[in-house]
Structure formats: structure tokens, C-alpha cells
Design goal:
The chain is mainly alpha-helical and about 400 residues long. It contains 17 helices and five strands. A three-stranded antiparallel sheet has the order 3-5-4. Strands 1-2 form a two-stranded antiparallel sheet. Helix 12 crosses helix 17 and helix 14 crosses helix 17.
Length: about 400
């Protein structure tokens, strides 16, 4: 029911979900589109460029709602004529509003108004007028004005254009929803399908845009004020937020934004750094090593780790200790073997890991987040694939023990 953007397809889908079912059957796409457009089409001289009456067939309706085509020019031109605002209002009042479910109508109108207020292209004065109609419960006027608005908007979906525009926000969250982990982009039968929406979230008091190092695309460009930010979510989570932007929800999204901006800054710092090609061999050997079957004795006191990690993060401490306990000696011997073949190999890798840590230690990430970023850094630079990420994480734990990562925590 949530409206993702201002276009005819999203408007029609929102109306369809709110129409009262006829018996056990919900309203069809065809019924919904004809309900919204027939009063325009049936006027005199609403003709195609060939001079024929406009006739929306089933394939045409499917393409409209799938955003594969734009609203026919004849309908656009007819809806823009003098006197159409009054006719649209009368049609909504007499033919559409009575057919809307009283149970979900308010949620639909709220979602529509949110989409309007979040729109970057609409003038503030026009947004204000829509908001006043919404607040004053002028349902017919609100729906009529919005219908005439979306009929003039671009309806055809251009995935490449949208992805190019939203790229930084998608990249910021790793091209997946930070709430549920769902991927934003998938390929189906050779065609790219996207599942994301950009939401605008109020910036909470006590959290400054400067302190969170917002990218320019992360601010609400429609107002150019630093009182809100934008965040990419999957469509389902975006709908849930826009229909119920509770205080708890806003707090959670503020926390996520602060975290992903810092992580994005870390990735930018690490982007130009390199790592010795030979580390690939160490990681592959580690992944194939069945050390879990037979643990080795540590040659140093385990407090070495605990003195460097946040004592409140017990999961992190146990994670790193397990890695060191099971794999430290194996990794050390593997590096020693590589040193025999490539002079100074270990020292070069250790220096690169230490430099990577120094690049991101002051960004404001937690130790657990730094471990994640260094793991991703090694995984990306070696191009080994996600299946090697656990082994890359063990390598980082090795260098925590070896003093290249983290300083001793003050008592």
C-alpha cells in the first residue's frame, strides 16, 4: 500500500490495494486503471496521434503498472486542460472514495502524503498545499490533485538512471537492506530487477550531520537543510517505516546511518591500499587446514588479547581468542614458509595490515566494526570471494595477537 514515488503506477497500485473487494475477489489491475482513467478517456477528442480513440488494452495496463511505459500522451494532454481539477475532484468524490476501505484508507493517504513530502522535484508551496488537504481530511481534493500530478510525471522505469542517481546511497549500505539483509539488485532471465527505496529520516537532536560525516547525497536535497538524511532500504522495510515512522524506528535508522557512514568512510580510506599477492596462498592454506580437529598450544599468555579488546564485548573477545587458539601457530608457520621463498614477505604484510588499521582507527568504529572492515579489506583485495571471508577474519585475529591491530586498552 505504500507509495514509493510519485508516478501513475505507484498511485494506481496504492488505490488498488485499498479498494473494497467484490465478494472474495480483489479489484483487478484493469478495473483499477479504468476506474482512474475512464472519466478522462471518455471525454470528446481524447485521441491518439493517429486520430483513434484511446483504448487501454490488458497489455497496455500491464505495461503501465510495471512501469514499462509512460502514460499515453493523449491522456496527459486531456488531464491538463482547463476545468479538469473540478472534474477530477467530482470523480473522486462520487466514484472512487466511496469504494475505498475505511479500514486501510487512512494508511494509504498517509503513505501518499509521505511520498509527496519526500519528493525532490515538487515545489515546497505545492507540498504544503497537499499537506493541508491531507491534514484537513479533504480526501477527494487530495486524491484528485495527486492523480493529475502523477499523470504528468515520468512513469517508465529506468533502472540504470535510478541506480546511477542512488549509487552512493546503495554503496553506503553494501547494496543490501541494512534492516533485513535483502539484496537490492538481482538478475532474472538476464534482466536486472531492483528492490529498494530511498527513505528520508529525521535527524535526531544530539546527532549532528557534521559529526556523522554525511555525504551530500545523504542529506535531504529537497529542503537543503541538515535536519534529515536519506537511507536506502528494501521496499518492504521502506513501506513499514513510512506507514509507521515511530520514535523507535527513527532512532534505529539514525543509529544505522551513523554506523554505515563510518563504515563507508573506512572503505574509502582503505580503497587505495594494497596487500601482498602472496597472502592469497596463506588464506587458501588456512581455509584448507582442519585445525579445529586438533588444537595447538599457545606460545603466549591469552591476556595479550584481552588487554587489547573492549572487555564489554565478550563475543568479540571469545571470537578472536578462538581464532588465535586454533590457528595462530599454523598461520605463523605458513608465513615462515612464505618468508623462505619471498624475502621479507611477513614484514611487508604486517606493515600493510598495520597501515590499514591506522587508516581507520580514528573514524569512530567499534573494535568489532574495525575487525569487519579489515576482514572485508583483505577479502576484496585478494578477490577470493565471500567463501574465503571467514579465513580473512582469522588472519585479522592473528594480527591482533601479533600487535599490528589495536592498542592495549588502558586500565
Amino acid at each position: 500500500m505504500g507509495m514509493q514515488c510519485l508516478c501513475f503506477s505507484e498511485y494506481a497500485k496504492a488505490i488498488k490495494e485499498c479498494l473494497i473487494a467484490d465478494g472474495n475477489n480483489k479489484a483487478t489491475d484493469r478495473e483499477t486503471v479504468h476506474l482512474l482513467l475512464d472519466w478522462i478517456i471518455n471525454q470528446e477528442r481524447v485521441l491518439t496521434k493517429n486520430g483513434d480513440p484511446v483504448d487501454l488494452s490488458h497489455p497496455d495496463i500491464h505495461k503501465l503498472l510495471a512501469r514499462e511505459t509512460n502514460v499515453p500522451l493523449a491522456i496527459k494532454n486531456a488531464s491538463n486542460k482547463k476545468g479538469m481539477a473540478a472534474k477530477a475532484k467530482a470523480h473522486m468524490k462520487n466514484e472512487v472514495v466511496p469504494k475505498l476501505s475505511q479500514i486501510v484508507k487512512d494508511d494509504m493517504l498517509y503513505s501518499m502524503n509521505q511520498a509527496i513530502q519526500n519528493d525532490d522535484q515538487m515545489k515546497p508551496s505545492k507540498k504544503k498545499a497537499f499537506n493541508e488537504q491531507f491534514l484537513n481530511n479533504n480526501e477527494a481534493s487530495f486524491l484528485a490533485a495527486l492523480l493529475l500530478c502523477v499523470l504528468q510525471r515520468e512513469n517508465k522505469y529506468s533502472s540504470k538512471s535510478d541506480l546511477d542517481t542512488d549509487f552512493l546511497l546503495l554503496q553506503e549500505v553494501g547494496f543490501s537492506c541494512p534492516l533485513c539483509g535483502r539484496d537490492f539488485c538481482k538478475s532474472k532471465k538476464g534482466e536486472q530487477i531492483t528492490d529498494y527505496s530511498i527513505v528520508t529520516v529525521p535527524l535526531l537532536k544530539g546527532m549532528s550531520a557534521e559529526g556523522m560525516q554525511f555525504m551530500s547525497t545523504g542529506r535531504d536535497s529537497s529542503t537543503d537543510k541538515r535536519n534529515s538524511f536519506k537511507l536506502a532500504l528494501c521496499r518492504q522495510d521502506a513501506n513499514e517505516y513510512e506507514c509507521n515512522p515511530s520514535e523507535e524506528h527513527v532512532h534505529k535508522l539514525n543509529d544505522i546511518k551513523a554506523r554505515v557512514v563510518k563504515a563507508s568512510a573506512a572503505r574509502q580510506e582503505l580503497y587505495d591500499l594494497g596487500i601482498e599477492d602472496g597472502i592469497v596462498e596463506v588464506i587458501r592454506e588456512l581455509r584448507n587446514h582442519q585445525a579445529g580437529l586438533k588444537s595447538t598450544e599457545l606460545s603466549m599468555h591469552p591476556l595479550t588479547i584481552e588487554r587489547k579488546l573492549d572487555t564489554n564485548d565478550t563475543i568479540l573477545i571469545q571470537d578472536v581468542k578462538d581464532h588465535v587458539f586454533h590457528y595462530y601457530d599454523f598461520i605463523r608457520l605458513t608465513f615462515s614458509d612464505m618468508d623462505g621463498r619471498y624475502n621479507g614477505f611477513f614484514d611487508k604484510v604486517a606493515t600493510e595490515i598495520k597501515l590499514a588499521y591506522m587508516k581507520i582507527e580514528d573514524i569512530g568504529l567499534s573494535q568489532s566494526e574495525i575487525l569487519d572492515e579489515l576482514t572485508d579489506f583483505i577479502n576484496v583485495k585478494t578477490e577470493l570471494g565471500k567463501e574465503y571471508a571467514p579465513a580473512c577474519r582469522v588472519i585479522v585475529s592473528f594480527f591482533i595477537q601479533n600487535c599490528e591491530v589495536f592498542h592495549e586498552v588502558s586500565e
